[in-house]
Amino acid sequence: MSYEDLYREVSADIEAEREETLERLGRSAKAVKGAVAELLRHRKFKYPLSVLPMIVHGIETGALRPAVPLAVVHELWWTSACYLDDLADGQGAFVAGDLGESEALLATVISGNPLPALVVHSPRIPESVRGALTAEVLNCWIVAAEGQLSDLRGDVGAAAPDSVVTAYRGKSGAPFSMITAMAAELADVEKDRVELWREFGNVFGVLWQMFNDQEDILSGRNEDLLNGTVTYLFACAVEEAAPHYRERVLGLHADARNSHHARAELTEVLLAPDVLRRYEEDIDTFRHEAHAILDELGGDEAYVPVLRQLVDHSSRMLLKPGLVSAGAASA
Asked: pLDDT at residue 315 above 70?
C-alpha cells in the first residue's frame, strides 16, 4: 500500500472532519466560514501529505482514524503557509480564488491559527493532550517563520549547503516535525519517542523541500530563480564551481530575477553532472537518516512500510543533466 492508496481510503473522513470544523465556527462567523472554505477549495495539494499524522498514529497504535483531526490541522496549516509564501513572493493576487487579496489574507490568518486550535480542542481529542498539541502549533509558526525569514534574507554570497539546510529545517522541517510529534503525543507514547518522531519530521521536511525544488525546475515555473531563492541545489553549484567561475554563478543568480537568458544559463549550471552528483549524494544521506530513525522507532508493521515508501518517494532524484532545455528554463 502506498500513502496515496491510504489517503484514498480515508479522504472522506478527512473531508468530513474539515467540514465539521468549519461548522463549529458558528452562525455568527458566516463570512469567515465562506472565506476559509474558498481558500481551501482553491488551494488543492498535488500530494496528499495530510495522511502523514495518521500513518504515524497507525505505526504507534495500529489505528489510523483517531488522528483524522490532525490531518485537518496539517491541511489548514499548509494552506495558510502557502498563501503567505505566495504573498511574500508577490503572487497573492493569483492564488486566492474568488477572494480579494485582503479577504484571502484574513482567511489565511484564521486558517493557520484559530482553526487548528479549534480542531485540537474538538471532542475527538482527549483533553489530556490538548495543551501539548496547541503548543506544537504555536511553536511551529515561530520556527517556520524563522526559517522563512532566513530564506528571504539569504546571503547569496555566503550560500552553503549547511546554511540552506538550517533554513529548510525551519520553513519545511518545522511543520512536518510539528505534525509527526502531534501524532505521537496523541498516541500517548513516551517523550523519547515523541522527540524521535519530531526529528523524523525535520529530516522528512528537508527531503520534501529538495523534492519540491526539483519539481520547480522540471515544471518550467522556475519560481526559485524568479524569487532569488537560495536553494540547496544552488548552494551545491556554488561549492562545485571553480574559483574563477564562482562570481559568474553568483551574478547569474542575481540576474535571473529579470533575465530569461540568465535563468537559462543558470539552469545549465545547476544541471551540470558534477553538481547533480553532489546533490544526489546528499539526498541519499538524508534518506538514509530518515530510514535510520524509522529503524529505531519500529512499530506496527502494517504501516511502517507505507512511511518508508513515502520517504523513498520524496527522495527520488528527478533532475538529469540536460533534462531541461534552455527554452524551458526561460519559459
From this structure: yes
